[in-house]
């Protein structure tokens, strides 16, 4: 294999695929990036078995010549060194030449680097996915759905299924759910599907979705999503992003969501978030994160927290309205702040079915996003 390629384009492609490289893999060749050079362009591939990413750079883009190919071929190069050295090369033109036993020479300006490559035939093949079950989602909307749910996945590997986000597709509705037993986040959208598949119990790792989100373009371009029995493929322009579907059955969370409330209130989102954020400063000093909310008859709530060493903070917030029984609630301030950050609305509706029952939060003007956190039992 021998070619020259423009540095910026190679760095961009490396940036995409390097998100799938893990130093903890038990398969040594997966610590490398596979390079395939053909007449049409150069394809980079990286995988850690859970995620596989492939990025294609065309030989030309309009009148711009990106790649000059002298000899087609493939090689696998050690990712950590390859990524670092390409970024530090002095010239915009990079020459890559593979010789006997996959010994690779990289030239740029006055620099010449020798790297011992690996046999590309030993690199695992990417999964083949039939395109019978496919949906299409605007990139910015998918990015928002990931942001609004993935933060609530569990970090406890003893229950692997809860480290993922559940996808349920029914008719023209797509719903994401994430739950770590202490909180829950869900978001539902309407999608256009030509032959609407009913797909239940598709669970994708939250970590994987966060890596996908970094690749998704901000502009409103459409992303094709192909779903098979154990893999999901995201097609993003010149990038193919494969993800394994987690094994197991996601627990039924629908029973956690009450159908009616004992107490309801509407509160300005920004004021509540800022008050809880200030209270969090003290609560974290005692490593409890516990903040208290007391509802008053004068249409206000009191937010407070205390630290045995530092003192106490108390704030009053005026409500838009409150109905039902006045309660005293204690909750994890960090969980509440995480939920408030993704509720994109000036006013939020908060529902309670009792002092020790789940707290349900939704934007006042929308029902397609829901956040739930469990309160704490405190002695006072």
UniProtKB/TrEMBL annotation:
InterPro entries cross-referenced by the UniProt entry: DNA_clamp_sf (IPR046938), DNA_polIII_beta (IPR001001), DNA_polIII_beta_C (IPR022635), DNA_polIII_beta_cen (IPR022637), DNA_polIII_beta_N (IPR022634)
Main location group: cytoplasm
Molecular function per GO: 3'-5' exonuclease activity; DNA binding; DNA-directed DNA polymerase activity
| Residue ranges constituting the DNA polymerase III beta sliding clamp N-terminal domain according to the UniProt record | 1-127
One biological process term in Gene Ontology: DNA strand elongation involved in DNA replication
**Record GO cellular component, one term:** cytoplasm
List keywords of the entry alphabetically: Cytoplasm, DNA replication, DNA-binding, DNA-directed DNA polymerase, Nucleotidyltransferase, Transferase
Domain annotation DNA polymerase III beta sliding clamp central: ranges: 137-252
User: Where in the cell does this protein reside?
Assistant: Cytoplasm
In terms of superkingdom, the source organism counts as Bacteria
Pfam family membership, one:
DNA_pol3_beta_3
Domain (DNA polymerase III beta sliding clamp C-terminal): residue spans on this chain: 255-377
Family assignment from sequence similarity = Belongs to the beta sliding clamp family.
Q: How does it assemble?
A: Forms a ring-shaped head-to-tail homodimer around DNA.
Q: PANTHER family under this entry?
A: BETA SLIDING CLAMP (PTHR30478:SF0), DNA POLYMERASE III SUBUNIT BETA (PTHR30478)
What does the UniProt function comment say about this protein?
A: Confers DNA tethering and processivity to DNA polymerases and other proteins. Acts as a clamp, forming a ring around DNA (a reaction catalyzed by the clamp-loading complex) which diffuses in an ATP-independent manner freely and bidirectionally along dsDNA. Initially characterized for its ability to contact the catalytic subunit of DNA polymerase III (Pol III), a complex, multichain enzyme responsible for most of the replicative synthesis in bacteria; Pol III exhibits 3'-5' exonuclease proofreading activity.
Q: Spell out the protein name for this chain.
A: Beta sliding clamp
């Amino acid at each position: 294999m021998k070619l020259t390629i423009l540095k910026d384009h190679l760095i961009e492609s490396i940036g995409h695929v390097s998100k799938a490289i893990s130093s903890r893999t038990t398969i040594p060749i997966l610590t490398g990036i596979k390079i395939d050079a053909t007449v049409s362009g150069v394809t980079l591939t990286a995988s850690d078995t859970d995620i596989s990413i492939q990025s294609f750079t065309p030989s030309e883009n309009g009148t711009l010549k990106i790649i000059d190919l002298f000899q087609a071929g493939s090689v696998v190069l050690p990712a950590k060194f390859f990524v670092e050295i390409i970024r530090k090369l002095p010239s915009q033109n990079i020459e890559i030449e593979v010789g006997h036993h996959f010994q690779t020479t990289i030239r740029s300006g006055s620099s010449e680097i020798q790297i011992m490559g690996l046999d590309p035939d030993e690199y695992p093949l990417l999964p083949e996915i039939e395109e019978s079950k496919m949906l299409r989602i605007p990139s910015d909307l998918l990015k928002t759905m990931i942001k609004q749910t993935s933060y609530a996945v569990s970090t406890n590997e003893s229950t692997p299924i809860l480290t993922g986000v559940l996808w349920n597709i029914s008719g023209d509705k797509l719903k994401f759910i994430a739950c770590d037993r202490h909180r829950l986040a869900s978001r539902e959208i309407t999608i256009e599907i030509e032959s609407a598949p009913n797909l239940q119990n598709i669970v994708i790792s939250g970590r994987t979705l966060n890596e996908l989100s970094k690749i998704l373009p901000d502009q409103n371009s459409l992303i094709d999503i192909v779903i098979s029995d154990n893999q999901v493929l995201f097609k993003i322009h010149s990038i193919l992003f494969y993800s394994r579907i987690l094994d197991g059955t996601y627990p039924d969370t629908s029973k956690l969501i009450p159908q009616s409330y004992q107490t309801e209130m509407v509160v300005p989102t920004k004021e509540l978030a800022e008050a809880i954020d200030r209270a969090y400063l003290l609560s974290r000093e005692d490593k409890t994160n516990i903040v208290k909310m007391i509802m008053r008859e004068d249409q206000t709530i009191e937010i407070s927290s205390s630290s045995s060493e530092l003192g106490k903070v108390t704030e009053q917030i005026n409500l838009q309205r409150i109905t039902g029984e006045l309660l005293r609630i204690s909750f994890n301030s960090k969980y509440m702040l995480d939920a408030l950050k993704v509720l994109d609305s000036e006013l939020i509706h908060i529902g309670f079915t009792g002092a020790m029952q789940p707290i349900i939060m939704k934007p006042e003007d929308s029902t397609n996003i829901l956040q739930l956190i469990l309160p704490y039992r405190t002695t006072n």
